[in-house]
Amino acid sequence: MKVREFERVVIKLRLQTRNAGDRLAWFEYNGKLVTRTKRSMGNKESPEYWVRQQLKLNEKQMAGIQDCTFGHDDYVSHLHAIGLIPPPPPSDSKN
Amino acid sequence: MLATLENTASPNPAIARFTDDAIGPQAATWSEEPSAELHGLLSSEEQMPAILANPQRVALGFLPDLRLRLRQPIVVSMHSTEEGIVAEVSDISEYGIGGSVGEAIEDLGKTIVELYRGLRSDANQLSADLARTLEWLSQRVEETPAGRHEGPRI
């Protein structure tokens, strides 16, 4: 996984980032840290399999991030679906 | 620590070989001769005598931060990928990567330190999944008095 591909994940999923010894990235939702990943500083490639594992993404979803068919809202829905974050409260419907 | 094994005559206590049927410190054995499979993965400057009889799994015994120590070794799976050598701790989906086994394990050690400290500082803001990761780490990592380094309890 090239640096630009990793950074595209950061942008599309709106990950928070911090540069420590590595470049750390994490997903926050409602004030909670939900997932996290990293890449080495510099131009080193990251192992996509493990980045996906950490972000709880499958290959298709990762490819969707790269071709802009899978974004932040899709990621939130996905995390809801796998139980990592609680579903949003039902909106009140007034009749 | 881990990677600075140049001129190390004795087996590196930070890394042990575990047999598949008896994982644990009591099963650690040492191999002085690198296997042919991993010989090519080691840089010429590194000497890693202990890990190579079973190259797919090693044990992390020390962390690259003298203020932290491991209560018990962490079993690490080694993988060869296009991006380099990956040292994985599957229980917490964490990994280190490098051009050699030593570099990957060293990177993993730094990653574990960063992850442990980061999750502890945000302990009240973790999802259930990351809270479990912190719990897993806390069972294995503990603080030591600054500057005093002790080995894992075996």
Structure description:
- The complex is a heterodimer of chains A (95) and B (154).
- Chain A is of the alpha+beta class.
- Chain A contains four helices and three strands, in the order αβββααα.
- In chain A, strands 1-2-3 form a three-stranded antiparallel beta sheet.
- Chain A is globular, with a radius of gyration of 15 Å.
- The model of chain A has no long low-confidence stretch (mean pLDDT 90).
- Chain B is of the alpha+beta class.
- Chain B contains three helices and seven strands, in the order βαβββββααβ.
- Chain B has helices at 36-39, 101-121, 128-138; strands spanning 15-16, 57-60, 68-70, 74-81, 84-89, 94-98, 141-143.
- The longest helix of chain B is centred in the last third of the chain and has 21 residues, at 101-121.
- The A-B interface holds A 1, 20-22, 24, 29, 31-36, 38, 40, 44-47, 49-50, 53-54, 84-85 and B 81-84, 86, 88, 93-95, 97, 107, 110-111, 114-115, 118-119, 122, 125-130.
Please write out the topology.
The complex is a heterodimer of chains A (95) and B (154).
Chain A: H1 3-13, E1 16-19, E2 22-29, E3 32-40, H2 48-55, H3 59-66, H4 72-81
Antiparallel strand pairs in A: 1-2, 2-3
Chain B: E1 15-16, H1 36-39, E2 57-60, E3 68-70, E4 74-81, E5 84-89, E6 94-98, H2 101-121, H3 128-138, E7 141-143
Antiparallel strand pairs in B: 1-2, 2-4, 3-7, 4-5, 5-6
Helix pairs in contact in B: 2-3
What global shape of chain A is seen? globular
So what's the oligomer here? heterodimer
Tell me the Rg of chain A in angstroms: 15 Å
Q: What strand order characterises the main sheet of chain B?
A: 1-2-4-5-6
Report the structural category of chain A.
alpha+beta
Terminal CA distance of chain B: 17 Å
Topology of chain A as a string of helices (H) and strands (E): HEEEHHH
Strand order of the largest sheet of chain A: 1-2-3
- Percent of residues in beta strands of chain A: 15-25%
Strand content of chain B: 15-25%
What is the CA–CA distance across the termini of chain A?
51 Å
The largest β sheet of chain A comes out as:
3 strands, antiparallel
